Amino acid sequence: MKKRFTLKLLAASAALALCGAAAAQSSIKIANIVELSGGGATAGTNFKNGVELAVKEINAAGGILGKKIESVSNDTQSNPGVAKGLTQKAVDNEVFAIFGPVFSGSIMVSMAESRRAEVPNWTGGEAAAITQQGNPFVFRTSFTQETAMPKVAKYIVTKSKNLAIMYVNNDFGKGGLDSIKKALNGSPTKIAAEISTEPGQVDWSAAVLRAKNSGADAVFVYTNEEESARALRELRKQGWDKPIIGETTLTGQKVIELAGDAANGAVAHVGLTVDAPNPEMLKFKANFYREYKYISDHNGIKGYTGVYTLKAAIEKVGKLDRKAVAQAMHGINISAAKVPGVIMDVSFDQRGDLDRESFMVEVKNGKQEVIATLPALNAPAKK
User: What's the whole-number average pLDDT of the chain?
Assistant: First the structure.
């Protein structure tokens, strides 16, 4: 009798476990771990909103494999330690995927936790070192510096013989400094000055004066958005009338708002811009504005397209298997014609780095204007 009762109890427990597993599979849980306060608030908020817009669209269309996405957002406070703790919590909550952090310094710390639990992790960070650790569960939503810098270097050599570089003294900035120097090595452009600045720096007078006194005929600015705006204002204040060149963080929407007229004339290489001559991009721009009542910057596009790459990978695998999805991401080619949410055709290599078209933009009358479309680095040569 006791044995029969034990067997029934075991059977009931197994049934409950199966019910629990089924319940766990009833939705696809993702964690949005981003900078909603502190120095990264602009980037993180845009990224979060992009993720949530994609989730809303996908759920309205029936979800992924018939299952809805459940998204929860958490604030890292732009603090790597907080990001690590939130990632540990997300792992404990058995999320299927993690989006964020955006800042390179935070993802460099937090991705150890998602890797340990074999949870796919999409990041907005651009530091080259992120995907040089052999982590098979981390994926970009933007170019690595090693992909972006050779593109902007081609433009720099047409404008400068002696270049001053202003960079922010963190993982992002130091990685950018190393990458642009590597890209310019052997070119006619020489480095006139390397000017280190601090995250959140307010006073840019000394940094700009160093650039002016270096004899540079152009300056490359590689800092976070708020600092870029301050740098632009100080450059104009001190009468700088030579080329100001940068990457995405020099000409973003927030930079233009903060810098005002000082942003006009700045030129940057951008992986993503809402002003790209692309119907899907213009559709995203309109939908994002309708939802949030402001124009997205590149970080909003990164979060949005990141969720759609997750969707493409899950559908390629055909089941909710985190490890299999991560494996499928390596070497995947996603066509915008088949998955419009990725906006542009995109491919991922074995390290988790992406490749796609990009753009050179110039700020004119307070707006980004695309002045050139650049092919993917590994695009097949035209015959």
Answer: 92
Q: Which fold has domain 26-143+279-352?
A: Rossmann fold (3.40.50)
**Sheet arrangement for strand 27-34:** 68-75, 27-34, 97-99, 121-123, 138-140
pLDDT tens string 225-271? 999 999 999 999 999 999 999 999 999 888 999 999 999 999 999 99
Angle between helices 298-317 and 279-292 (to 10 degrees): 110
Stretch(es) of the chain classified as CATH 3.40.50.2300: 26-143+279-352, 146-270+360-374
pLDDT value, residue 13: 44
Query: Are 121 and 97 within 8 A, CB to CB?
Result: yes
- CATH class of the region 146-270+360-374: alpha beta
Residue among 338, 339, 342 at smallest CA distance from 357: 342
Angle at 198 between CA 192 and CA 199, to 5 degrees: 130
| DSSP-derived 3-state class of residue 346 | strand
From its phi and psi, is residue 368 left (phi > 0), alpha (psi between -120 and 50) or beta? Answer: beta
Are residues 275 and 248 in contact, defined by beta-carbon separation less than 8 angstroms? no
Q: How confident is the model at residue 177 (pLDDT cuts 50, 70, 90)?
A: very high
251-283 CB burial, b ≥16 within 10 A, e <16? bbbbbbbbbeebbbebbbbbbbbbbbebebbee
Q: What is the mean pLDDT of residues 343-363?
A: 97
Distance of alpha carbon 161 from alpha carbon 242, whole angstroms: 12
- pLDDT tens digits for range 226-237: 999 999 999 999
Give residues with Cβ within 8 angstroms of 138, minimum separation 6: 107, 111, 114, 115, 121, 122, 123, 130, 131, 352
Report the C-alpha dihedral over residues 269, 272, 275, 279, rounded to 10 degrees.
140
